[in-house]
Amino acid sequence: MKLTIICASYTGTTYGIAEQIRNACGGEIIEIQSKDLLSRVVAFMGRHSPGMNVRESGSLPEKIDLSGSDLVVIGTPVWGGKPVPAIRKAFAVLTGCKGKKAVIFATCGENPGTTLQILEKDLAAKGMTIAGQFSLKKKEIEDGTLVAALIAKVQEAADPA
């Protein structure tokens, strides 16, 4: 079973969950970062906000081929009730998606808005089916119970039986 984890993470929260999934289930992480104007402005503001650390890792590949993957996990922070621009841009370069299963998750302070619905719609347009979806609020991430449920769902979706 080959697992591909695609995530964007500006402060490390979403990437940290992606790492927990990889540590529990294996697979590779593709970290996406966009250089569009909105992303640069938010990163600039974050760098100058007390207590916020902004990551500089990740890139936006020209192509992400999922044809060799059995399961895809996609994680995004929530900005204004929607997925971050980097994830939406990554969807444009996804290939080999048809018939693939995906587990999606969003990290947020309080309200995920329409993030999961947007991800589900965009992935369905690529021919993928959603095997699970999670909205992880800050307190739930700290508690760890919902992260454990996300990992269990990935393990379940990856099981070929």
Domains (count): 1
Through-space gap between termini? 12 Å
Strand count: 8
State the CATH architecture: 3-Layer(aba) Sandwich
Q: pLDDT under 50 segments (min length 5)?
A: 44-50
Report the structural category: alpha/beta
Basic shape: globular
CATH C-level class is Alpha Beta
Spell out the CATH superfamily. Flavodoxin domain
Taking all residues together, what is the mean pLDDT? 86
Helix content: 25-40%
Beta strand %: 25-35%
What is the CATH topology? Rossmann fold
Q: What profile does the largest beta sheet have?
A: 6 strands, mixed
* H/E element order: EHEHEEEHEEHEHH
- Number of helices, counting only DSSP H or I runs of 4 residues or more: 6
Question: What does the model show?
Answer:
With 161 residues, the chain is an alpha/beta fold. The chain has a single domain, classed as 3-Layer(aba) Sandwich (Rossmann fold), CATH 3.40.50. Helices cover 39% and strands 27% of the residues. The strands form two sheets. Strands 1, 2, 4, 5, 7 and 8 form a six-stranded mixed β-sheet that branches. Strands 3-6 form a two-stranded parallel ribbon. Strand 7, helix 4 (115-125) and strand 8 form a beta-alpha-beta unit. Mean pLDDT is 86; it is low at 44-50.
What does the secondary structure layout of this molecule look like, with pairings?
Blueprint: E1 3-8, H1 13-25, E2 28-32, H2 37-47, E3 64-65, E4 71-79, E5 82-83, H3 85-92, E6 94-95, E7 101-108, H4 115-125, E8 129-137, H5 138-143, H6 145-158
Helix pairs in contact: 1-6
